[in-house]
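Q: Entry one of two.
A:
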Amino acid sequence: DVIAGFLYAILILVVFHPVVDLIDNFNLTYKYAPLIIITEGMATAVEKVEEQLAGLRIAGRCVPSEEPSYLLDIHTSTAAQPGSSRLAAVSCSNQSIRVYDRERLRFLREYRARAGVLGGVRFAHTRDSVVFSACSAGTVQCWDVRSAAQEPVQVFRGYPSNAFISFDVSCSDLIVCAGTEKVEKDTFLVFWDARGVTDCAGATKEPLGVYSESHNDDITKICFHPTEPNLVVSGSTDGLVNVFDINKDNEDDALISTCNSDSSVSSLGWSGKDYKQVYCVTHDEGFCWWDMAQLDTEEPITLLHVLDVRESVCAENHGLHYLVGGLYHEKAGKLFLIGGTSTGNIHLISCGTDGLSLVGTLCGGHSATVRSFCWSPTDESLLTGGEDAQLLLWKPGAVERSLTKKASLKISSSVQKRVRVHNTSLKSRKK
């Protein structure tokens, strides 16, 4: 009986084994097939975006100013009302801020900062007529572009030894934060209340407070989170990238994370779903990318660390001389880097956890090093500014009128003779 029962069990197993396999295979297919389809769809969307970026062409360029200068930083306004025109503000090496109609690149106004080198330019998020600038003389100034008056409508004054080289405005326009150069042993993140900036023309605001312990060298870059006004990231020549929650009572509690880029930070920003990732570019053309969502897990937060992007990205015959910064494409959920050559070619580089790859090269626009750019997700366009004193607007599939192009290039060639060529072989400072 025991032997008969054993043989019967074997018979059942043999007979029904193919059925079991069929069911398992069906379940496997059912569970994983949709995942494969979604992944392929995502890849197609990313490829389409990469094609659009590689297909950017010159849609317009500004007429160079009578006093040619490097275009160091660019920012564009958000149209406050449907149908209203957007503006572009550019900080220049001659300590001026130039304002343009963004679509036609028509020059509108120019403001002269007080003594000192400009440390960037930013439009307010909720008021498209308000633009901020920081300078090494120890102030952040606020301008109302509706007025031609040369006096700022608001001045945010720092402490006597402060020389500001970086700054940003929170997404709610409530807080302004600026970073200083190192003076003796001190370096600061200085904060101000930015409410009511145009209500009291000519008024001066004193700081709310400072962070002084988290960096020990020049604070080269500051960037508030795109949607959470209490989060801000800062980068320094000390190689550290710090993320803060400024709602906390003190600096120690506010410091959420410290990441080490191992080199001097030149640019940084937020990326990823819900902008939970932070990336930075270094002065010796390195790239670091971290995931803040992994802070409370056992998973590593480093997504990618490239010591020298010039060696890891094949830019064919054009070469890659430098990086300018990063561009997070929200629709595609993809991070890109923008770099280029000393002759003005612009390289678009795709970032993945498995490495970097060249998407395309924009040629025929600039004739010297590109120092700044601003991406517009609204119309998928790119503004670029360089050491040739040119401001260019790039759009997918655009066609530039040849007459404008020839005239601009003729001007830029004479400009180039009067400006110093940017050194593309910067070495990282000793820590």
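Q: Entry two of two.
A:
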Amino acid sequence: MPVWLREHSWRQTLTAVYLSLPLRGARATAADIFCSERYLKVSVPPFLFEAILYAAIDDTNSTAKIGNGNIFFTLCKKEPAMWDSLTLGNAGKEKLQYLRENAVLKAQEKAKEETEAKKLAKQEHKKYALEATMKLEEAERKRIEDLKEKEREKVTKELELWKNQQKDAYKYKSVPKKGESHQETEPLKERKTKKPTKTRIPDEGTSKIRLKSTKGCHGSCSIFSPNLKAEQLPAPRAAATIRVNFTPRVFPTALRESRVAEEEEWLHKQAEAQRIINSDLSELEDLKEEEKNPDWLKDKGNRMFAMGNYLGAVNAYNLAVRLNDKLPLLYLNRAACHLKLRNLHKAIEDSSKALELLTPPVPDNENARVKGHVRRGTAFCQLELYAEGLQDYEAALKIDPKNKNIEKDAEKIRHLIQEPMQSS
């Protein structure tokens, strides 16, 4: 149930009424106040204040201020006069209800009108913005059309000027010069019937081309004249074949870019390793060439491990190790297979061999060293050698301190070590 606010203070002038409502600790907002011409309501749970005003007020210019646990109203009177009281006291219940409902209806209509006015203003603003945009676009389009028209006129003038220049040049060429012989104006048919004069064939060694002028031109003929004789070219050169020999190279780089001593040393080591493999593994002669590649065997072992064929993976890794015993990943992968097969001592041996080959420790082999320590530590723990296993896990944590899984496993091993001590 709301608590009616009976305590309030007010004072008035000819033009305004000043009302103060104490809220007693309640917090009010603007949404808790409703005011119309004759009706004022303040709903601040749990308090409620309601009043039918003595006369009409200008609710648009009236204000309310909230602060220090009070609400201060400044109600502007529509007509200057002194009120006998703040509220309408002699009104009956039905009249009060009518005034209250009428005030709510007027407030709703006013809110609706304000919403419609805002909507219309927004539409007008959009319409104005659209018209302004269309005007700008039209001005820009007109400017572009004017530029195009100017360019078109400019090109047309240049074309006309060029045509006039061509006409003048043609007229100038068609006028015969003084001193030209009568033979230059002979008909074209007579010129075609004339026999060409003999020309001297130039020597083969010279690079100059000489042209024999026709009779009657006297050096004044153009190069496009029909009287010009055919150009005499030297005899073609004799065909020949050029052979280029290249030095055989094992490496793809050019000889000037390589280091010959290091390349020869590498080739010698490869040949020696291949010789040892062929002598020690004479039983592998029936295998294909790719099956003698350690990398190919490693990939085959990885595929078998993924399918759960751990024995087949171990056999593939064994053969790869016999071909090349300097690859630490072969020992790491075989150690993983031995862990799955519960060959714990062999897993420890392979992990130790892999860690031995992964020296010196560098950032590139951090991941492989972590795997080596974890797999050897796992094998130690499964053999109940928790102290040795904890050493490997702590070594792995030093390499990769952010690995939460290794940290959890190390914590479990510490508990397993501490349990026998507590029980004793």
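A: Comment on entry two: Residues 180-185, 197-219 have pLDDT under 50 and may be disordered. The radius of gyration is 55 Å.
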